Each structure stands twice: as structure tokens, then as C-alpha cells.
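In this supplementary section we document a worked example of the pipeline. Step one takes a protein sequence of length 389 as its only input; no multiple sequence alignment statistics are reported here. Step two produces a three-dimensional model, which step three serialises into C-alpha cells for compact storage. The input and output of this example are shown verbatim.
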Amino acid sequence: MSVWVDLQGQDSVVAQLRRAAQSTSPTHAWLLTGPPGSGRSNAALAFAAALVCERPELAARGCGVCKACHTTLAGTNADVTYIATEKTTITIDESRALVRKAHDSPSSSRWRVMIVGDADRMAERTTNVLLKAIEEPPPRTIWILCAPSPADVLVTIRSRCRTLTLRLPPVADVAALLVRRDGIEPELALTAARAAQSHIGIARRLATDPGARERRDATVNLPLKLRDISTAVQSAASLLELAQAEASSSNEERDAVEKVSLLRSLGAPETGTLPPPMRAQVRALEEDQKRRAKRSVTDQLDRALTDLLSFYRDVLVLQLDARGGNSAQHAALELVNDPLRAQLQDFAARSRPETTLIRMDAINSVRRRLTTTNVAPLLALEAMAVSLL
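The serialised model returned by step three reads:
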């Protein structure tokens, strides 16, 4: 089973990465870009696995069968270092540790591979720590950076990398992957893939978690409930609650497992008060979990706003189709939220495309503010909801 199997609809990128993995002197630094859900991290790990693959024949690099491939995909290969962050940014200390690690010789592979999964979440000062290491890497070290777009990485870094851009795979390909890999029913897989707008991870969550589907449906239906300022304020609060519920659903079980695992590794007593050194480590874990939870809420809000945008995207599609005189083809239009087709058509008939674009811009503006400033989420969402009236 090849390591490339999950990279649906990325044939061009996969072909280039496979050729590089088979080369005796591949480019020393790569920048993989693409929108959320395009598979940047999967591509980086697959490329790393192919680079360290133990199969002697070059054409089989990335076999997915050998120990090196298995350990790379599992995150336990000693010659592959992966760093991402579940906090707001990658710290400068983490960056320095990565540079030190990059100068170690590979222990059993042809290459030492350094993957930065969130290169866009590095401050300029932090990124500059990597600059020298990427500009003049050790002879057997290869860097792979991942970011949504080249513009999200300092020009001094991206000018030293070979850039490959991934795209969102077609909905049908995502649905086929869910059926094949996760055993999802074809109809549910297709519905989830369309609702996730081809984001593979979110499509899988929607297909396997009824609660996630309910929360998304509630988000997409919000514009239908906007009547006045009062309902707008209520809708903003509801949107924040939905994002917090989704984040909590994702984190609670994981937090508990992490705490149990830490206590077990420390040899903590089953009852009674923990010794001071153990309490300090538990507090450190809890602080990390709080920071992760904060980012998780921000990420979930961004996803909720993306779902909200899909409502107005469908409205705009219907409005432009009607303006072009193709109203007879309404039933054939592919909508992200097809179950709401009747409501969408009614909503589209009561406004103009120009108004819809203004509303979409208001949503995108809030998305930028939530991810780049310290604005209070509820206040930002209330202002947005009022502007959607």
C-alpha cells in the first residue's frame, strides 16, 4: 500500500514529489502550500516516508510497507522530525531546537527530514532562526514547510524553497476515500464531502459524528433566523456556543487521556495528594491544554464562519444564475447546502448579488480579525451578525 494513497486529486504534486524521492540529490527545501483540507500535512509525511523508505528499488520509494514508511506515518521515525503547534504560534525555543536537530546525521536513512507543519504560525523573529539552516542545510538534511499560501511565509524563506501548491480534491474523490478508508455509506460520504467543501478531515468528522452534523446544520441555518438586531445578537451568541461545543467535543476526551498518561508515566499514586514535582508537571500540562483549547475555539469559529459563508456562496450562485437567464437550470446547480435548496432560492430572490457579496465580505473580515487580533469573539460576531441583516 503506497504512502501516497490518501492524496486524492493531487496527481501533479505527487508525481513531482515521487521523482524527488527517487533522486540521489533532491532539492534541500520544499514549501507545500494549499487551502485547509488540501492535504498539506499528508503530502509532507508521504514525501518524508518516501525519502527514508527502505526499499532498494527507486521506483518503489514510499512503498508504505517497510518499517521506515510505517514509523514515519506513525510519527516515530528517528530520522523524521515533525513540528506543528496547537497553540497560537510556534515559539522561538521550538524553532531553535529544530535547527539543532537538523544538524544531526541521519541514524539509519538516506536523509534527515525536518517538517514544519505550521510554517505560517511563526513570528518573523522565529522564522529568521530557521533562515540560515534552510539556506545552508547540512548535506543530508531536507526541509519541508507547510503553509496555506506562499504569502504566509517570509519571502527570505520561500525564495530558498521549491514551492508546490496543492488544491482541494473533487467532492467525489473525497467521498470515495471515506467509503474506501473509513467504511462510510456512499450517500452519507457524498453529503459529508460536499458539506465539508472537500476538506477530508472535516468530511470524516461530519460522516462519523452526528453531533458535528447537527452543529453545522445549526450554523448554516442562522441567516434564515435573522430578523432584527435582537435576533442578530442572539445568533452571534449561538454561533460562539456552537464553536465552543465543537471545540470541547474535540478536546475533552483527549485532555483526559493525556492527563492519565502523564500520571501513569510519572508513577503517581492512585489516591492522595501528588508530590510537588508531579503537581508542577500536571499544571504545565493543564496550561498547555488551556492554550490548545483557546486556539481550538478560534479554529472552530473560523470553520463555522466558513460554513456560514457556504450559505451565502449558494445564494450568490443562485442569484447569478437567475440574472444570467438560466433559471430553468436551477435544479441542476450543485450547491454546498443542497438540502436547503428551497430556502436558499427564496433567500436569493429577496436580495441582490451585490448585497450578498457585501455580506460575504463582512464574514471574511471577522475571520481575519479573529485570527490576527485579540478582538473579543462575541463582540466581533455580534457586529457581523448585525451587518448581515
